Each structure stands twice: as C-alpha cells, then as structure tokens.
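Dear Dr. H.,

I hope your travels went smoothly. While you were away I took the liberty of generating a structure for the chain from your last submission, since the lab meeting agenda had it listed for discussion. I wanted you to have the full record in hand beforehand rather than looking at slides cold. The sequence, exactly as received, is reproduced here:
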Amino acid sequence: MKKIISVIVILVVVLIIIALVGSNKAPAVSKQVENAEVVASSTSVVVPNVNLVDGSYSVSPSDAKLTWTGKKKILKNWIDKGTIALKSAEFEVKNGAIVSNSFLIDMTSIKNLTNGSKKNQDLMAKHLKSADFFDVENFATSTFIAKEFTATTSDTFLVKGDLTIKGITNEITIPASLKYTDGNIIVVKGKADIDRTLWDIKYGSDNFFDNLGDNVIENIFTLEFELQLKLNTVKVEGVSTSTVESI
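The corresponding predicted structure, in token form, is as follows:
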C-alpha cells in the first residue's frame, strides 16, 4: 500500500512539474510575437511638416554630392577635404510615411581634393582606403538607414538612423533639410559629424596611441551631402504609375 501511495505521489509531482513548465513557456511565445510586431511597425517613418507623395523614390549618383573633411588635432591649419560617391539611394512612401529606405555609399570612390601638405592627394586617398582607415577591399560600401525624423523648423529636421561602416552599425543623428522642388523631386541637405573610432578606425587617434606628436588626427570627421530624390512611380489606389524614367 505504501508503494502504491508513493507511486501516486511521484506521478502527482511529475504532473505538477509538467504543468509549471508549460505555463512558463506560454508567456515566452507571446513575448516573441509581440516583439515581432514592434519590429515590423518600427519600419514606418513619418516626416513632420512634409506631405510625402506615395510612391518609389531613388537618387541618381550624378544628383548626389557628398564631401568629407578631416583635420589634425595639433596643426590647426591642417585640413583635409575630399569627395565620396553615392552608389544608390531609394525609399518608398506609403500613406505619407517612409516604409523602407536605404542609402548606399561607395567607399572605393574616396578622393582627396586638398590636404594639409598641399600634395600627394592620390597617396592620401589610397591610405584612407587601406586597412588603417576604411578597409575598402573588405568593406566596399557603407549604408545609412533613417529611422526617425524630428522637426526643428518647418523644413529642417534631426534625422536619427543607423550608419554601418566596416560592418559595424552605430546610431547617429544628422541635422538635415528636406523639401520638394519641381513637383516630384525632393532635395535633402545635411551635415553629419562622425566619430570614426566608433567604427574601429583608430589610426592616428590619441585615444589609443601615445607619442604621435603633431600627427594626431581628429576623431571627428564631417560628411556633408546634398541629394535629389526623384519620384519614379506614384501609387494611386494600389496601381503604380510611372512619373519619370527609372534611374
């Protein structure tokens, strides 16, 4: 009789354990579904004060101007300037909100126009493309994806987004302006100060190296841009109609 009671007790304990395990799993599944919904909804970006026309927009590289500026820390008059090319840029607007966007920068296109030494522009560009800096052999492109626009005036914004360089992604905030010209063209202008060390670009930084003398390079470099986004297709009641030739 005692053996039977013991078996029954063991069975009851096992059933209780199974019930508890099952109840613990249920909330985890619910949480995963909830998180999935949050991720899906976070792709919609509203631009305050701007009535975006629904459709697909893109940028021709010829309609994009990107310039960069770097400086040395001790030699205050040492300023390096150059250009870099946009490989592609596009975003889609639905119900007045940006539902997808991507800006792709061609890192192999880095050029040096002027520098502190007033010479060796080609050598400097080659150095910037090397593993000391942007390692373009392994990371030929960088990307920016906008996540949030906050209005500062009627046509200026703080644009928050993810910048990926060398496979490393960090969130940055860019002051920018956005407005329509000629009907279906949006002109975007902005200027971003970027701390290169956040993307593991440490060459010449006195945060990581000693005894650099006057060769210390500022951690912050500046990227200025002006883009013309053209509306390629406009969506009316679920039908896409071409407005300009696709780029």
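Two observations you may find useful: Residues 1-41 form one domain. The longest helix spans residues 2-41.

With kind regards,
E. W.
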